Amino acid sequence: MTFYFTGIRSFPKLWKSNSYLGLSSSHSYLSLFLKDCYGIRNQEKCFSVKTMSAQNTKAMNLLIAKARCVRKLDESSNKQVSADSSHMFAAGAAKKRSQMNPSSKDPVLPPVENIIQLPTKPLNSEEWDKLKEEFKEKANFENWIILQMVKCHSSLDVAKSVLAWVAAKNSGIVGYDLLVKYLYLCVFHKQTSEIIDVYEIMKARYKRLESGAYTLLMRGLIYTDRWREALLLLEDLKKVMIPSKKNYDDCIQGALFHQDVNVAWNLYQELLSHDIVPMLETLKAFFDFGKDMKDDQYSNKLHNILLYLRNNQLYPGESFAHSIKTWFESIPGEQWKGQFTTIQQSGQCLGCGKTVESIHLSSEEYEFLKEKIMRDVIDGGDQYKKTTPQELKRFQNFVKYHPPFDVVIDGLNVAKMFPKARESQVLLNVVSHLAKQNLQVLVLGRKHMLTQNSRWRRVEMEKMQKQASFFFADNISEDDPFLLYATLHSGNHCKFITKDLMRDHKACLPDAKTQRLFFKWQQGHQLVIVSKHPGAKITFQHILSYDTVVQTTGDSWHIPYDDDLVERYSYEVPTKWLCLHRKTTKNVNVWNSLTVPLLIWLSGAE
């Protein structure tokens, strides 16, 4: 597409800049979508110090001694909590494992070609012609140079000089792609008047735009007096496609900025109706808007957002967690108090002392999940690509005529823990360790494990078969469906051992509820061996006793959140928590019943 600039204000002219609360300098250009990278840090608390009289010295000494005991207890608890960060599903655990096992090969970087120094000030036509001569692919120079400016966030003056140069060479014609890239720079630099000028040009010349231009225009207009035109652009976009979560986020943020909360909520409900998972920034904006607001209806909607996080296994970042805390504490007359804390291995919150939800499924949840996995993963999955109906039937009969198992082992997965060790010896050590505890053990293996070779010794296989039950599948078969079937068929007490994260099988499940239950069950049943070398004592990572999910008891909320400094993979869960509790009349009476006698005793101790 091309466009004539005849009659449009000249490019060298410095148009007036109107700043707005839109993009920040931390945004980058990749696919015309911009990501907010700001986070709010914990702020220091200031305390006033008052001189104490001599008659209270003894009481103060008692309180200091008590504080020391509490501090030691907290330090001991923190040591216990720190162990949580090492479990398989803890945020950052995968990153640590990758750092402990770095790749032996250095990454190969692509060759760098056609690198030129980007101008830092506007150039005239002669200077651009000279620079183009230095570029080998002359036909692509204009698009290439403006793209480099976008990536480096060059100033608008320099970008305008490119467009003026192109227009002068082409009778006032500037290509559509150049115009969109220039629009990106206008949005990035928050040049409102420039954005509106480009918008007027596009509106006059094109009936339809591509999605990237719609996105940029909506992002540029939402913080201007013409923000409602961004909603019209959203309607235009809906005629050809479902808008992205970013499009909805821009319009919702603009509506809240301009105090039109009804439009914001309507857009949010529309977004959910398309089964689009909203951006966390969108949800955060609703909490920021509700600060200091006494509105039960609005509060209920925010509570529903928290329940949405729970039901979809979503976790706020630090900045969002601070917004949630601020909103709760700002509700007039509610007396909420929040603190950032951690959860002990026992499941007890270090902040309020309450025990959070158990990781173990109820009998109803277990039966529901079992039925879903049997239907969607075992019977309805793609397991027949790696096995046969006859083999699966043979395995089902095998399990049916054996007593329930306590532990199911993915034999090959465990045997390959130590690449340089003999696989049959590694597996024998694990099986023997479990057999000594009088556990009913099932080992899932492949038929080639029965063939004598340097990796698999027959005598060691015979020892294992005396200590555990074995099922040997065909060599091409997939182990995971067998492992899931045997573990679920044995009952809620049964654990399984594998390093496989089961992400493919989780993806086969039909809805968010079932996927969340599967992940909850997996965390409570998957054992991971942490022995560091062959022959070492067999030890397992502890299994979490609590569920890492947003949860409430009515007068308290516990919200796991992401630490900005920790890289969390999708199958990991946060280790940091926001604890919120409301001061009720009952709490105050209990507190008075404890503190008043203590104060009377301290005053009489003198």
TrEMBL record:
Biological process, per Gene Ontology: mitochondrial tRNA 5'-end processing; tRNA 5'-leader removal
Pfam family name, one: PRORP
GO molecular function terms attached to this record: metal ion binding; ribonuclease P activity
InterPro entries listed in its UniProt record: MRPP3_PIN_dom (IPR033495), PRORP_C (IPR031595), TPR-like_helical_dom_sf (IPR011990)
Keyword vocabulary terms for this entry: Hydrolase, Magnesium, Manganese, Metal-binding, Mitochondrion, Nuclease, Transit peptide, tRNA processing, Zinc
Protein name from the UniProt record: Mitochondrial ribonuclease P catalytic subunit
Positions of the PRORP domain: 343-579
Cofactor dependency: Mg(2+); Mn(2+)
Catalyzed reactions per annotation: Endonucleolytic cleavage of RNA, removing 5'-extranucleotides from tRNA precursor
Taxonomic superkingdom: Eukaryota
CDD domains associated with the record: PIN_PRORP
GO cellular component: mitochondrial nucleoid; mitochondrial ribonuclease P complex; nucleoplasm
Subunit composition and interactions: Catalytic component of mitochondrial ribonuclease P, a complex composed of TRMT10C/MRPP1, HSD17B10/MRPP2 and PRORP/MRPP3.
Subcellular location(s) per record: Mitochondrion
E.C. number: 3.1.26.5
Family: Belongs to the PPR family. P subfamily.
